[in-house]
Sequence to fold (266 residues):
Amino acid sequence: MLKKLFGKKKANNDYENNSDLLETIDRDKMPRHVAIIMDGNGRWAKEKGMLRSAGHTAGIKALKRVLKTAVNINLEALTVYAFSTENWKRPTAEVDFLMKLFSEYLEKELDEMDQENVHINFIGRTDAFSPYLQSQMEDAKKRTANNTGVKFTVAVNYGGQDEIVRAIQTLANEVKENRLSPEEISPQILEKHLDTADLPAVDLVIRTSGDMRLSNFLIWQTAYAEFWFTETNWPDFTEADMIEAIVDYSKRDRRFGGLSKRNEEK
Ligand code: IPE
Ligand code: IPE
Ligand code: MG
Fold:
């Protein structure tokens, strides 16, 4: 139905005007926090006979489109998976290329993100990056700290298991120093020690490129998330795709272990 509304979908298109469709979304049923596993850059490039690096470069354009969409629809929080704790297993040349691309992205996009009232943050073990990249991330956070628009979080050198272990280490130290008793540890306390402490739970996870797994992304925060998968490779992901995912989400019956509203009324 959506495809019909949009007409033929253009690959790697510029921003489409989907404002009419957006108005059909019940604002009460909008997700607060959307998390995206931006996958398939390599497959996109392979299909075109290009190098994997070209896929990553094209992936940056898709990221810009999606952030713009988040701004347009007044999304509260958008978190994107840019580099996992497992991605170090890739060839050094690819890892180096990704770092360079990330650095260029921050350099080129920061002004515009700031103008669009985007509040940027980074999660993961950012201390593994070069001092220059770390200073860019610090600068981006500081510059946008007072912005009140979309909370845009980039997960870099991020792993959900690593994040939980770091939180537990902090809690264990608090116990050791008698500032906390083991019985006081609750899901709420643990959550406050995660990198995402300032964000609401994830409502919707989008993964592109056909694989249906979390790959160590936000494993705690997605406990009750809805999932939306598409075969589309990340560089081809458009504003229309993002809106299609959100419209689909808005129709889901989220029960959180209880009964659906309809059943409760009976
Ligand atoms: C996602 O695309 C980008 C990163 C993981 C950094 P991939 O590079 O994983 O692309 P595929 O999965 O090999 O197609
Ligand atoms: C997940 O994609 C990580 C990012 C998108 C950054 P991968 O391509 O690394 O995931 P797997 O290896 O297919 O699970
Ligand atoms: Mg992949």
